[in-house]
Q: What sequence folds into this?
């Protein structure tokens, strides 16, 4: 039995869950999310909790059991609290600013990098060298943060680039030391 899959998901107050044959919809104060239910997985509500179970003990079904429970739990957390990732920009003259539905990054290239902000994501720049990516879909928040980080990954010699807050970048010695 899956340790994660067998745990029930508590529904906070104000969260509405509707389950039909092939999908589950979770609606809360921050928004609405929908997920397709995998084959051989059964989702039901009982006593203000969501219970995920499987119909067979095949290997593929065992793998999907914990995954579906985790995805539904992320949906419930997303519509109640939301998710956020923070990025920091390190480098002389490197900065970011948000205008309309675009993020404009000056990263030392010959041109500013423009990133179109996807629907359902909000990006804030409290300081020119800090970014906060937030939204209700955990997967989309992580994907957007990773795409922004890919514009200039932190390099190991001077440490310049875009990194997650708290990320450790191991510094290398340059040619002169070696």
A:
């Amino acid at each position: 039995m899956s340790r994660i899959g067998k745990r029930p998901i508590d529904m906070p107050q104000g969260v509405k869950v509707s389950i039909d044959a092939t999908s589950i919809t979770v609606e809360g104060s921050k928004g609405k999310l929908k997920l397709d239910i995998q084959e051989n997985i059964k989702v039901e509500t009982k006593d203000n909790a969501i219970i995920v179970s499987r119909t067979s003990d095949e290997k593929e079904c065992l793998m999907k059991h914990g995954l579906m429970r985790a995805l539904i739990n992320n949906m419930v957390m997303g519509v109640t609290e939301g998710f956020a990732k923070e990025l920091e920009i390190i480098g002389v003259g490197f900065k970011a600013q948000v205008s309309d539905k675009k993020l404009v990054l000056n990263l030392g290239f010959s041109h500013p990098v423009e990133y179109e902000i996807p629907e359902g994501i909000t990006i804030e720049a409290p300081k020119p060298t800090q970014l906060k990516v937030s939204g209700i879909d955990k997967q989309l928040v992580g994907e957007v943060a990773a795409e922004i980080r890919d514009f200039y990954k932190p390099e190991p010699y001077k440490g310049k680039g875009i990194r997650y807050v708290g990320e450790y970048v191991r510094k290398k010695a340059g040619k002169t030391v070696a």
